[in-house]
Write a structure and sequence with these properties.
Number of helices: 14
Strand content: 5-15%
Number of strands: 8
Structural class: mainly alpha
Radius of gyration: 34 Å
Distance between the termini: 106 Å
Shape: elongated
Helix content: 40-55%
């Protein structure tokens, strides 16, 4: 009597083919979820799951999954599947069947990280999950591991395949973040139906989005801004590092003539002098002790200017902060919330504030950083 039953062998191979048919299915679904420019990339990742995964599963993974149990955790490696794992069907048929499940577990992840994963890095992931991650977790369930010893039964790979792929997808998606800008939606929702969401962008173009995208993708919601007390302004002006200096008594006297700044300068100067006297510091030399700078006074002026500006909601956060200096000078970021939320008035307020900032910068002995223009070069050449 023959060892193998033809019907059983054919049935296992049919099952392997049916599982394999999920591969093109995954490829089509994931292609539909991505932009046209990334279609080739996502399909190629699905192909590499099968090509690379089947090789490493044959070399190492199958043995780790179905080899002799070691402590309920892992199987004994059986490189290139030389042992006999068949029943009423050959080991080769069983290997093909299990390889299809391995490829399926790997492919689940490609959709979760679509459009955000480097191709080479994804291939490395595919090798790791096919050679190590899936085989070890599969051994616990189908290879006689600790879960199998506890009486655990898996239904159609729901845990061994799909949960492993799902957990790997979750970890990967968490690491690389959500897709941003896929639909270029930036406006107001005008219609919601069972199968579409229509958004009118601020340029009056209309975009149709599938409802599931509101859950699976990242979108900017303007409603919170509308319901809050203001609309944020966050812009910077770059100042020339060479224009920053200590304030002389003459400069401080001139700054005191600015109404909103007078009290600040007097109080700060009093604290500075008190500190220098307590520490016995010779403040005739600016680098000794503590002294005010024109940049520090300018920052204080801008904060007081924003505080007293009627169009600024001073109940919300407002500040002027110095950012990391760069080759383009010292970025001074102005951060506040405008009471006006409509686009046109909001832009006018933002422009008026920075018009004022550019106009008062020279009064504090500072200079706005600007790359040389052709006119600057001409003036230098004329002097030469």
């Amino acid at each position: 009597m023959d060892k193998y039953v033809s019907a059983d062998t054919i049935w296992v191979l049919i099952g392997a083919f049916l599982v394999f048919s999920m591969q093109p299915g995954f490829a089509m679904v994931e292609t539909g979820f991505t932009r046209a420019k990334n279609a080739g990339n996502i399909v190629m990742k699905n192909v590499m799951d099968m090509c690379l995964g089947s090789i490493v599963f044959w070399v190492l993974g199958f043995g780790l999954m179905f080899g002799t149990d070691i402590g309920g955790f892992i199987g004994t490696p059986d490189f290139f599947v030389k042992g006999d794992y068949g029943a009423s069907y050959p080991s080769t048929a069983y290997f093909i069947f299990q390889t299809m499940f391995c490829a399926t577990a790997a492919t689940i992840v490609s959709g979760a990280m679509a459009e955000r994963t480097n191709f080479l890095v994804y291939c490395i992931y595919s090798v790791l999950i096919s050679a190590i991650i899936y085989p070890i977790s599969g051994h616990w369930i189908w290879g006689g591991g600790w879960l199998a010893q506890m009486g655990f039964h898996d239904f159609a790979g729901s845990t061994a395949v799909h949960m492993v792929g799902g957990v790997a997808s979750l970890v990967g998606a968490k690491m690389i973040g959500a897709r941003i800008g896929k639909y270029n939606a930036d406006g107001t929702v005008i219609e919601v139906t069972l199968n579409t969401v229509k958004v009118r962008n601020f340029d009056n173009t209309i975009i149709t989005i599938p409802p599931y995208a509101l859950v699976s993708d990242s979108f900017q919601n303007w409603r919170g801004m509308r319901e809050s007390g203001g609309r944020r302004v966050k812009r910077s002006v770059n100042l020339d590092v060479n224009s920053v200096c200590f304030c002389t008594p003459e400069m401080l006297e001139r700054y005191k003539k600015i109404v909103i700044l007078k009290e600040y300068i007097e109080q700060t100067e009093q604290k500075v002098q008190q500190y220098n006297q307590q520490q016995g510091i010779d403040d005739s030399v600016p680098v000794n002790g503590v002294h005010q700078t024109n940049l520090g006074v300018f920052r204080a002026y801008l904060e007081l200017y924003l505080k007293n500006l009627p169009v600024v909601n001073s109940d919300l956060t407002y500040m002027v902060r110095q950012l990391q200096p760069t080759e383009k000078g010292i970025p001074l970021e102005v951060y506040f919330f405008s009471r006006e939320k409509d686009w046109v008035p909001y832009e006018k307020i933002q422009a008026d504030v920075f018009d004022h900032i550019f106009a008062v910068v020279p009064y504090f002995g500072l200079k706005v950083f600007q790359n040389p223009s052709s006119a600057d070069i001409v003036r230098v050449l004329e002097r030469v």
